[in-house]
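Subject: Sanity check before I submit

Could someone independently write out the structure tokens for this chain? I want to compare against mine line by line before I put it in a report. The sequence has 73 residues.
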Amino acid sequence: MTVLQEIENKAFTLSLPEKGRLIHDLIINMDGGTKYADDFEKEIQKRVKKIKSGKAVGIPAGDAFSKIEARYR
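---
Independent answer below. Compare away.
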């Protein structure tokens, strides 16, 4: 088993809040954590605020992926 597979397997067992934190931290560190970290953080916080206020309406992941897939066929 590769290190990546081990990490994925452990990540799948995390609670939803823990998964969210992991995703957040991975996004923030995509560029080494320096170049765009502030911009990513501002955008994330803006989107979280919209979701919590009800201003942003989500769609099921399957629908989102289907739309993306259809666009690039």
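---
OP: Matches mine. For the report I'm noting this point. The mean pLDDT is 87.
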